[in-house]
Write a structure and sequence with these properties.
The protein is an alpha/beta fold. It folds into two domains: 6-30 and 298-402, Aspartate Aminotransferase, domain 1, CATH 3.90.1150; 41-296, Type I PLP-dependent aspartate aminotransferase-like (Major domain) (Aspartate Aminotransferase, domain 2, 3-Layer(aba) Sandwich). 40% of the residues lie in helices and 16% in strands. It has 14 helices and 17 strands. It has helices spanning 6-11, 38-51, 61-81, 95-110, 129-138, 155-161, 184-192, 213-216, 241-246, 281-297, 299-317, 345-353, 367-373, 389-406; strands spanning 19-20, 23-24, 26-27, 89-92, 116-120, 141-145, 166-172, 198-201, 220-224, 235-239, 257-260, 265-267, 323-325, 335-340, 357-358, 360-362, 378-382. The chain has a seven-stranded mixed sheet, with helices on both faces. α7 (184-192) links the parallel β7 and β8. α3 (61-81) packs across α10 (281-297). It is globular and about 75 Å long.
């Protein structure tokens, strides 16, 4: 794909010019968090220098400016994922908080003893632990749909686990540990055939592939801003309006109320019912700037370019003796998780850092995945739209050099 404007994109990210231990930075830890373009950095800087005030209900100029920009960012999110209404866009701290919100509102109101929640074997801890906590509170049962050795969901097994006791399906859209992109449209259709709502954990998918929640027909979709080239500390919960209106508030306090007396309080309409307290104002506006930046490039073009990177990295990795790729699903995002024989992933990460190469080493908040593959951890190189084949070459040479060091 020769038309992808890689040099212009790289120039928009100031941190990519950093030197690490005297070497050019090769940043391949994007599954953990992406770097930020100038437009996001400058947008947030401008908010604090020129526009900042607390939002909603303020009548002075700065409050009106901040409120307008905050709500404009909500509309950008709505458009980005093609939600039907901005009332369906709830700002939270991140995907983790969004899942906890759903567990403690929708879950507590609709799931009782003996009911079942269905997840998959490749989930991030954030899509496991909140459901375990809910099961402890309600005496519901957590079911896990298995996967095969290449990291693909066993779809027939998944559908067999759907039954009259299943009250919610919560599935990762793209695995952060394996890169697997799940067949979410088929998952949703199978669940909806039995009137079971579906939550998609989109934290890993949203920066890499186009997402249209109406086409998917998911009932909830969650993601974090920091993986989407935006600020940390901000995320999004999308929920179909009918679900959100029926759910009780998650937290109480300012901005989520309509009236308060000592006898009774009434709550604000959507989306503010779920946004208690002073929000992350500049972060929301920064997220809007990040989405505007991505729209200027095009998510389809980003997905195609990153697919090229993954294909190239996979081909190069398979030429290295002793390197074992963990996760080789046919439909996969730009993640290369691997092991190198007896060399511990933490040693791999430390050695590569000495060459200016940033990867992630560990269990990636997916301990059950590591247990499935019989490894304590993996090394993970994860690619973004600003990475290049030349950087992949640097990574592969670094891996070869550390193999020589460790014999």
């Amino acid at each position: 794909m020769t038309t992808f404007p890689i040099e212009r994109i790289r120039a928009d990210f100031p941190i990519l010019a950093e030197k690490i231990r005297g070497k050019d930075l090769v940043y391949l830890d994007n599954a953990a968090s992406c770097q930020k373009p100038d437009i996001v950095i400058e947008c947030m800087n401008h908010v604090y220098r020129h526009d900042y005030a607390n939002i909603h209900r303020g009548v002075h100029t700065l409050s009106v400016r901040s409120t307008d920009k905050y709500e404009a960012a909500r509309e950008k999110v709505r458009d980005f994922i093609n939600a039907e209404s901005s009332k369906e866009i709830i700002f939270v701290r991140g995907a983790t908080e969004a899942i906890n919100l759903i567990a403690q509102t929708y879950g507590k109101a609709n799931i009782k003893a003996g009911d079942e929640i269905l997840i998959t074997a490749m989930e991030h801890h954030s899509n496991i632990v909140p459901w375990q906590m809910l099961c402890e509170q309600t005496e519901a049962v957590l079911r896990v749909a298995p996967m095969n050795q290449v990291g693909e969901l066993l779809f027939d097994d998944f559908t067999q686990l759907l039954n009259e006791k299943t009250k919610l399906v919560a599935v990762v859209h793209m695995s952060n540990a394996l890169g697997t992109i799940n067949p979410v449209k088929d998952i949703i259709a199978a669940a909806h055939a039995k009137d079971i709502p579906v939550l998609l954990d989109g934290a890993q998918a949203i920066p890499h592939i186009p997402v249209d929640v109406q086409t998917l027909d998911c009932d909830f979709y969650v993601f974090s801003g920091h993986k989407l080239y935006g600020p940390s500390g901000i995320g999004v919960l999308y929920g179909k309006q009918a679900f959100l209106e029926a759910m009780p508030p998650y937290q109480g306090g300012g901005d989520m109320i309509r009236t308060v007396t000592f006898e009774k309080s009434t709550y604000a309409a959507l989306p503010h019912k779920f946004e208690a307290g002073t929000p992350a104002i500049a972060e929301v506006i920064g997220l809007g700037a990040a989405i505007g930046y991505l729209n200027g490039i095009g998510m389809a073009d980003i997905a195609a370019y990153e697919a090229e990177l993954l294909t190239y990295a996979t081909e190069q990795a398979k030429q290295i003796d002793g390197l074992k790729i963990i996760g080789e699903a046919k439909d996969k995002g730009a993640i290369l998780s691997f092991t190198l024989g007896k060399i511990h992933p933490h040693d791999i990460g430390t050695m590569l850092d000495s060459l200016g190469i940033a990867i992630r080493a560990g269990h990636h908040c997916a301990m059950p995945v590591m247990e499935f593959y019989g490894v304590p951890a993996t090394a993970r190189a994860s690619f973004a739209m600003y990475n290049t084949k030349q950087e992949i070459d640097v990574l592969m040479e670094g891996i070869k050099s550390l193999i020589k060091v460790f014999g």
